[in-house]
Amino acid sequence: MQIQALYRQSLFDLSIQTYGSVAYVFDLALANGLSITSVLEPGQHIEAPEIEVESTDIQNYYQSHGIKPATAIETELLETEDDCNYCKLFE
Q1: Residue 82: which domain range?
Q2: What is the domain count for the chain?
Q3: Do residues 51 and 27 lie in contact, with contact meaning Cβ atoms separated by under 8 Å?
Q4: Residue-wise pLDDT tens digits, 48-81
Q5: Residues in a beta bridge with 45
């Protein structure tokens, strides 16, 4: 199955969205020749291998509610000369 990455989605987000757990992030990375920390481009197609998951509760909840997490933070938001300016991330 192919999934399409959204803006600020990481392989961890896609693992949760597709399988209901981050435990499958390595499977996604291997199937696509990526690192688990690879930065995905919006619209990038990711091959999601068919995997029998241990528990489908979270997977079913995310899919039935259309939840698509996007938690990646852009590095330029973290670059600052003021060591204690992380509040700007939540503005």
Answers
A1: 2-90
A2: 1
A3: yes
A4: 999 999 889 999 999 999 999 999 876 665 566 6
A5: 4
